[in-house]
Amino acid sequence: MEQARLVISGLSGGSGKTLVSLGLSRLFARQGLTVQPCKKGPDYIDYAWLALAARRPAACLDPYFLDDASLLRHFSRLCLRRPSDIAVIEGNRGLFDGRDLEGSCSTAHVARLLQAPVVLTMNCAKMTRTAAAIVSGIASFDPHLHLAGVILNNVAGERHGAMLRQAIETYTDIPVMGILPRLRENPLPERHMGLSLNSEDSEAHAVLDRLADLLNEHTDAAAFLSLARTAPSLPDETSESAPARTETVRIGYVQDKALWFYYEENLEALREAGAELVRLSLFDADPWPHIDGLYLGGGYPELFADEIASSPRLADIRSLSMAGHPIYAECGGFMVLCDALLLDDGPRPMAGLLPPRPRFFRRPQGLGYVTASVVAENPFHPLGSVWRGHEFHYSRCEWPQETLPPCCLTLAPGQGMYEKNGVHYDGLLARRTFACWTHLFAPAVPHWATNFVRACSGR
User: Fold this and answer.
1) Is 331 known to be catalytic?
2) Which of 197, 228, 259 is the last residue of a domain?
3) Active site residue: 60, 79, 105, 331, which one?
4) pLDDT digits 0-9 by tens, 275-302
């Protein structure tokens, strides 16, 4: 399989890899190229920015969710279904940072698996000759990794940049592919919690165009494209057929300023399983159309709690649940189903379908990868199955009269909704409404979409 591709990584978080990934993606898209953005690691905000930059959905390439064969198959299928001129793959954390001493699930692991050249971004503040030592060490640390170039970021001026370039090109054979100047202001001022991106967001497009201009002025974009085209052919891993469409049901999914955390792969999995997807909003003025089931993704409902509390669409959700229609809710979607949200200035009533009241804190209350074991029957996950997901929430459940209802999942690792006798529980079930803190990635949980569609069909 032929696919031009490259990995953008860094020495650590904050090195500039997101700036470079976004700038290159937008620059290539402006040049008329078809760009497939990808991200290693769960980060809905970066996925949204990458999708906006490239003007097509971003893809998840995470070796925690998928073993090597499955990840290769996922990438091959992606390239087949969404042909592109170049795949830009943004790493996370430092290049070799993984879950253990061996660096499992690292960006380097993904780059080796995909045989993709790596471009390293470096924050070079207050550094000159040491940069060469760092690049030399990175290049020799893993002989199976193709470190193909380096971008020098946060450079003080022309003299500083010249010293850095001379040192790296004297002591290593790694080319310097760009020198980015120190910027007076954060080039991504709105990249934070609560930003809801969409294709009409003119301010976000302006930010992305400025990043593209920065990369165009201070790097050789053609060199990146040429480098990506040196990636060798990959084995054709697309022989596994897509699941047969056995049903035709209508599943609504809420995607608006409050709830917008969705992997594109999850929506694709539902379509492949036989669902017609209907995009909805908690802020729709008119009643929702007929749907057979509802998917509520994550987001930041706390930022719009007053609007949600007064929304007549909460009554639509209650009606769906009480009528026994399947509802699947993750994190922010789960909070909308609860009795109320507890904010600093008091509670805000929500749909009232589930008893807990999430209270918000300044620090994360659940963050990172989880492994879920299914310990109770439900419409979506087979009893006894084990699957991987991740948590990202700043709230903790408070329960009425300290009652702890039975849950469908246990997490290890993971925080979940509550802990009892050293076990962390997640996944509440009421009728056929299932809600959890845990986000899932559908290719890693292949039973989910099929079971969701089957439940919506009444079987």
Assistant:
1) yes
2) 228
3) 331
4) 999 999 999 999 999 999 999 999 999 9
